[in-house]
Amino acid sequence: MSGTVAPLPPGAAIGILGGGQLGRMTALAAASLGYRCHVYAPEDDSPGMQVAAARTVAPYEDVAALRRFAAAVDVVTFEFENVPADTLATLGGLVPCRPGPRALSICQDRLREKAFLAEAGVPVAPWRAVRDRAELDAAVAAIGLPAVLKTSRLGYDGRGQAVLRDPADLDAAWERLSPRPLILEAFVPFVLEVSAIAARGVDGTTVTYDVVENRHRHHILDTSFAPARVPEAVARRAREHAARVVEELELVGVAAVELFLLPDGRLLGNEIAPRPHNSGHWTMNACGISQFEQHARAVAGLPVGDAARHADAVMRNLIGAEGMSACAGLLHARDVHLHLYGKSAARPGRKMGHANLLLPLGSLRDAAEDPLLARLGRLQEGPVSPAPQ
Fold it and tell me: In this structure, what DSSP letter does residue 180 have?
């Protein structure tokens, strides 16, 4: 991509599709660079709207509202990939959109996403498209059991999927899951989920953050450890995969690539998130430039910055009422930075905020884990798992 695109001047307006916490933290980072943000979302008083200079409350399908929004901003980005493709197509004819429609269309469809990863040189587990019940039987025969049946669109935090362990599981899973087509993926005997975040500017310059390891509870990210305690060759390969993904997508902004680490040291690509990601929240306090500032920089046409880490970190999500109940203690905890999202209703499974524990650079690898987690509070019930499938 040409490097001749002029950066937006201070005071310009960045439009953000989606009003969740990722949009909120992006808007805060953009404000520190002198930009105003205009959040467009169907829900009033969303976390992003609370900190934005302007808001539009309207459905994503409202063409008239989209046109007014486009006229009020200088560039558009999105904070989640379930924005309808038609929305971005409408805006794309009126104002620059970063990332563009191609990145959105690939990453919101698991079938296209898996094919793209393989074409980009990122290994993936065996998979098959499932358009009808007969194709499900054929896919199971080809891949074997156990396997994971997923919706190709709209699933997140473990929603929209079912683990198939026995042929008797197929009928119930097929009836429950929609929209279709579905995707069947081989069950991966991984030992760890890692994620790598890359930022790419309008001039094609790409930087990557250190790889992190992720733990989940109830299919929701619970904890991220930065850097991942994996061999250096594994970490380097994960960063190379993330860089390759954003380059092949010609993405402008930030993207996260989730990968499964197998017992033999191989990495398999799982998902791409073409926007800031939960597993990158540690960068807000452990790096000079957070993932949110990198995204705002790239979208605004500024140079992407140094992604180096000045501290090790452990990030923990604050989920539901239990997470909120830990806030008082976290406010007094040494080296812990609390970030709340302004959500009023602490529903079960809802991400209300996160806390970052900072550690001296290079100390995490040899640190005992339980005392670290105790400093962040054991916030959820249920077993910790490396990742949902």
Answer: S
Residues 6+ apart with CB under 8 A from 131: 180, 181, 182
* Both tokens assigned to 328: 């008082």
- What is the distance between the alpha carbons of residues 380 and 349, in angstroms, rounded to a whole number? 10
Residues in the chain: 389
The least confident of 1-5, 93-97, 274-278, 303-307 is 1-5
Q: What is the pLDDT of residues 80-103, one digit of tens each?
A: 988 998 999 999 999 999 998 899
In contact, 299 and 98? CB cutoff 8 Å: yes
Helix 232-249, helix 110-119: angle, nearest 10: 110
DSSP-assigned letters across all residues of 31-63: HHTT-EEEEEESSTT-TTGGG-SEEEE--TT-H
Sheet with strand 75-78: strands edge to edge: 54-57, 36-41, 13-17, 75-78
Q: What is the CA radius of gyration of the chain?
A: 20
